[in-house]
């Protein structure tokens, strides 16, 4: 992916056309002989087409070189450092930088009580397919949403034959969670990485949320919640049900099956193609006019021809 003398800089692949995510559990992520690779403990190289990925998720045991981070940033692939099996999301790289005009617009919406409520109501509408109840505050809508989510979990558990108690897990003790909760944690981590990649691609801040607040990925949770019951939650329950019934291959590696199932669901549902337009639709519901970008706005890292995709990382 490096630029050679006499050749034009590489053109990024639009985020909607990329593969969704790839997990790396153990190995050295590096750039060797111009290729983005993972080197295992025996020295075997595995080539990673980093320019065609939206998000690379690094689990414990993965080490990343400076050259690899640089190349991932140049081609617009988000690096996310997660806990084992995705139980935690520790940090993320931000290739290309944020857009000041969009950050200011997002912050203005979040700080205006009326605009924030309108955005939250739009998220509710997009998530459940019906308008939110009238004359409800953000806190009240959060409570209503939580109750509906618990009912949806119960419905899906019955649909897929899962022995289900409630949504509960301990981030500090992954093995203490039951199988359905481990599958759900893995599934949601997949979606969180994808949502954060889209948020950064569009120039917004993952930390400035509307329904969720106070966390580094608050807006990630907002966006992911709109999509998770259409994408990853059914995958998690399907795999958990198969594993509980002793069906293979789910019984051998349920967490791995969830990852692969989410990958296939993202591709089938065109999730990457839907994320950024959905983010813009949510924020537009706030009713505030976005500011014009200032003349000194930082340009994108790799210029490309206009394609109709608002993702500024390409």
Q: Your description of this structure?
A:
It is a single chain. With 314 residues, the chain is an alpha/beta fold. The protein has two domains: 15-92, Ribosomal Protein L15, Chain: K, domain 2; 100-284, CRISPR-associated endonuclease Cas1, C-terminal domain (Four Helix Bundle (Hemerythrin (Met), subunit A), Up-down Bundle), CATH 1.20.120. Helix content is 43%, strand content 12%. It is built from nine helices and eight strands. It has helices at residues 66-75, 100-111, 113-128, 138-159, 179-201, 218-227, 232-244, 254-269, 271-284; strands at residues 19-24, 27-32, 35-39, 45-47, 53-58, 62-64, 78-82, 89-92. It has a four-stranded mixed sheet, sandwiched between helices. The radius of gyration is 20 Å and the shape is globular. The two termini are 15 Å apart.
Please describe the structure with a list of short key phrases separated by commas or semicolons.
314 residues; 4-stranded mixed beta sheet; Ribosomal Protein L15, Chain: K, domain 2; single chain; 43% helix; alpha/beta; 8 strands; globular; Four Helix Bundle (Hemerythrin (Met), subunit A)
Please provide the ordered H/E string of secondary-structure elements: EEEEEEHEEHHHHHHHH
Share in β-strands: 5-15%
Mean of the pLDDT scores?
84
Note the main sheet.
Answer: 4 strands, mixed
* Number of structural domains: 2
Helix percentage: 40-55%
Poorly predicted parts? 300-304
CATH class of the largest domain: Mainly Alpha
**Strand-pairing-aware structural class:** alpha/beta
Number of helices: 9
Task: Please state the second-level CATH architecture of the largest domain.
Answer: Up-down Bundle
CATH names the topology of the largest domain as Four Helix Bundle (Hemerythrin (Met), subunit A)
Dominant shape: globular
Q: Which homologous superfamily in CATH is the superfamily of the largest domain?
A: CRISPR-associated endonuclease Cas1, C-terminal domain
Quantity of strands, as a count: 8
């Amino acid at each position: 992916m490096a630029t050679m003398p006499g050749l034009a800089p590489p053109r990024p692949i639009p985020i909607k056309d990329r593969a969704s995510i790839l997990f790396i559990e153990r190995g050295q992520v590096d750039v060797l002989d111009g290729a983005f690779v993972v080197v295992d403990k025996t020295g075997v190289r595995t080539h990673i087409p980093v320019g065609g990925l939206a998000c690379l998720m690094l689990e414990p045991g993965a080490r990343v070189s400076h050259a690899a981070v640089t190349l991932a940033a140049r081609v617009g692939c988000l690096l996310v450092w997660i806990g084992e099996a995705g139980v935690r999301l520790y940090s993320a790289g931000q290739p290309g930088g944020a857009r000041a005009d969009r950050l200011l617009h997002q912050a203005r919406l979040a700080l205006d009580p009326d605009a924030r409520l309108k955005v939250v109501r739009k998220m509710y509408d997009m998530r459940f397919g019906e308008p939110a109840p009238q004359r409800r505050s953000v806190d009240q809508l959060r409570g209503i949403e939580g109750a509906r989510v618990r009912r949806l979990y119960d419905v899906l558990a019955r649909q897929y034959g899962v022995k289900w108690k409630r949504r509960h897990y301990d981030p500090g003790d992954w093995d203490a969670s039951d199988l359905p909760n481990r599958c759900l944690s893995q599934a949601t981590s997949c979606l969180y990485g994808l949502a954060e990649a889209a948020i950064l691609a569009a120039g917004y801040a993952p930390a400035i949320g509307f329904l969720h607040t106070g966390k580094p990925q608050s807006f990630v949770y907002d966006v992911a919640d709109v999509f998770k019951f259409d994408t990853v939650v059914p995958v998690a329950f399907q795999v958990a049900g198969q594993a509980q019934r002793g069906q293979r291959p789910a019984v051998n590696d349920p967490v791995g099956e969830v990852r692969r199932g989410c990958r296939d669901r993202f591709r089938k549902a065109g999730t990457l193609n839907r994320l950024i337009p959905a983010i813009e639709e949510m924020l537009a519901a706030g009713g505030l006019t976005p500011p014009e970008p200032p003349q000194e706005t930082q340009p994108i890292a790799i210029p490309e021809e206009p394609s109709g995709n608002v993702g500024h990382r390409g």
